[in-house]
Amino acid sequence: MSTATAVNGPVKQVISCSSRLAEGRALVQDVWSIFNAANLPPDCLNLGQGYMNFGPPTWIIDAAEKALRGVVENHYSHPRGRIRLREAIKNFYSPRFGRELDVNTEILVTSGANEGQYSVFTAFLEQGDEVIMFEPFFDQYLPSVTFNGGKPVYVPLHPPPATIAKPTSNDWTMDVNELRQAITPRTKMIIINTPHNPIGKVFTRQELEQIAAVAEEFNLLVMLDEVYDLLVYKGKEHIRFATLPGMWDRTVTVYSVGKAFAATGWRIGFLIAPASIIQPTLAATTRIVFCSNSPLQEAAACGYEQAEKYQFFETQLSEYTERRAILIGAFDKLGLKYSLPEGTYFVLLDISRVKFPEDYPFPESIIGRCRDFKAAWFIAIEVGVSTIPVSEFYCEEHADIGAAYTRFSFAKDVETLKRAAERLEKLKQYIE
Question: Which residue windows are coiled coil (predicted)?
């Protein structure tokens, strides 16, 4: 009889589970379980997890209710996705890609962006294939890669130099030489997340062109995680990697309806790619989920169809700009450094000057973790605002880079953010 370390402690097993669970850190208690509402004070304000405390616009909810009253809308959809949604995606994204997208061969609806990524890994990775991930990385990449036989290879983005008084997310930089040195004969794929979670970085054209040159030289598949593509703040331009010369044929781009329309629980995402990538991925997703939620696909279609009429994305960006200002204003009052995000709804706060007692009663789940875990727990308990330690988004070798930061989400209503700002004033007494 074997024993596995599960989220809630050791579990006796008659049959040993797959080693891929350990390789993907899936059996270790993750950051989301530790900084869960159940473990924190009841009145703690959750600025850690990236879900909204407000819902989709009423006209999209109305479309969902209408679909739920239908007949065909409540049954299986085609594994490619409902044609109305694919048509809406085509009409919305064709101008943004500078090409007429084919609804039958170049668009695939998935059960959330994560399942879409997972299906790509299933479709293309052989055992031992290496996948390059820029750090910090969205934590789902790691298990999704390893569960499909891949081996992650990490290339860290470099934090802003200490000499920069007011850093932005653009000051987190990529070293193309480090990227090239990470390439081996087993390298199969590169994952790029722009706008980037958790940094908020919007990769520049120059950076993307450098990656494109590497991808072409070594014949690599490139996955673009662009789920925050419609949250890019004034002064920055989001470059779609697939539009760079020669990149369409080797790029799959991942999107999220949940991120776009404040409906993260709907679990609707989609992929845009050439037929040579979509067709194998379709074969995978058909066996993983068969098809995605039918009535909510109809509602998602309505979202893209009517977004221009309601000026939805322009209004949403303006609202997030206000929310961002409230949160960084609180950090400015504290005199703490942060990386001003140029995209997404996340901001990294430098917590290296936040001090806490060495003998503070941390729970067992925090003991042995990097300093940012302790700082985040201390802030949650003593200040009443929860945040996410950034070392979770690194491999063990590079975890010290992330240990200087915690991630705050401003995907909350204005009132919640103002309350959080008031509470954060209490942190001043703990700053060195």
Answer: none
Q: Please state, in angstroms and as integers, the Cα–Cα distance from residue 230 to each residue in 236, 315, 363, following that order.
A: 12, 11, 39
Tokens representing 266 are: 């709907």
Ranges of beta strands (E only) in 231-367 are 251-256, 269-272, 338-339, 346-350
Give the contacts of 392 (CB within 8 A, at least 6 positions apart).
Answer: 30, 31, 139, 402
Q: For 11, phi and psi rounded to 5 degrees?
A: -130, 125
User: Which residue, among 255, 201, 205, 208, has the nearest Cα to 233 in the 3D structure?
Assistant: 201
Q: How far apart are CA 172 and CA 175, in angstroms?
A: 10
Q: Per CATH, the architecture of 19-55+313-430 is what?
A: Alpha-Beta Complex (3.90)
26 — pLDDT class (breaks 50, 70, 90): confident
Tell me the pTM. 0.94
pLDDT digits (tens, 9 = 90+) for 128-138: 999 999 999 99
Q: Give residue for tokens 């958790």.
A: 198
DSSP codes, 310-332 = HTHHHHHHHHHHHHHHHHHHHHH
CA distance 169 to 244: 23
Provide mean pLDDT across the span 288-297. Answer: 96
Half-sphere exposure of 183 (CA within 13 A, CB side): 17
3-state secondary structure (DSSP) of residue 50: coil
Q: Is 69 exposed, middle or buried (0-12, 13-18, 19+ CB in 10 A)?
A: exposed
Alpha-carbon gap, residue 255 to 272, rounded angstroms: 8
Eight-state DSSP code of residue 354 = B
How many DSSP H helices and E strands does the chain contain?
15, 15
Look at the domain 68-309 and name its fold. Aspartate Aminotransferase; domain 2 (3.40.640)
User: Could you tell me the CA-to-CA distances from 325 to 37, 63, 142, 328 in Å, in that order?
Assistant: 26, 32, 32, 5
Q: Are strands 2-6 and 107-110 parallel, antiparallel or unpaired?
A: unpaired
Beta strands in 161-290 (DSSP E): 187-193, 221-225, 251-256, 269-272
For the chain, the structural domain boundaries read 19-55+313-430, 68-309
E strand or H helix that includes residue 107: strand 107-110
Q: Which of 55, 1, 4 is nearest to 27 (CA)?
A: 4
CB 198 within 8 A of CB 50: no
